[in-house]
Give the backbone structure.
Amino acid sequence: MFEILDMGASALTAQRVRMDTIAGNIANINTLRDANGKPNPYRRRFVVFAPGQAGDTSKPGVHVKSIELDQSPLPKRYDPGNPDADKDGYVSYPNVDMAIEFVNALEASRAYEANVTMMDTAKSMFNSSLRLLA
Amino acid sequence: MYLDRLMNQGSVPVLEQFAQFTDARQNVLGEDIANVSTPNYVQKDLSLEKFQELMRAKIDKTDSAGPGSLDFNDISMDIQNPSNDILFHDGNNRSMEQLMSDQAKNALMHNLAVELLRTQYAELETAIKEGK
């Protein structure tokens, strides 16, 4: 009877990881170098969900299967004075699109809310069943 | 034996079965909501109509058998895929509005069944206490 709460919790975790990934993308929207300071524009990350709970996929729920790198081409801007410019004077920027990130963030937020509502409803059902005993 | 007859006649077994059904359905709907962003996930549901149909057939059959012989535990439900219309590029046929209203309705039905059961048990208690 309580597995529905585990299921909801797995979805909350998954949506939170999705939101973290989106936050990372937005934070790095202008990052042109990697952690070591070498020229390597940031690539957009996205989560891939799969059914089943994280620890045991045979249990109903959802988990983050992987966090992938978006392999779409990096947009280039003409900026010959930039130290990261190529020989033609173009600088590659991260392939993060603010509009896409916001749409995904909104979807993650709504999905999170839906799961909280579902868990709340399940709790009200447990409570009403428990009242049978009293 | 006598207590068994008391507990297994009237609406008690029907309500028990209904509460069990709504509980199981809430689990299925919960899984659908959890997987609302999962690629290629097809939404599932337990059909309320099918359950009521099975229940009706069972009640009709047991009516002639007399009181004390109702047993609904053999009603089993198959998980169904309510719609095959894939609208999203990720292959998921989610409908958040449908899911949320279904789970709200399901919870209300569960609470209704449990509340009616409570009334039945309270009446039984009154009878045991000889109306005191």
About this structure: Residues 22 and 104 of chain A are 8 Å apart (CA to CA). DSSP finds two helices and four strands in chain A. The radius of gyration of chain A is 21 Å.
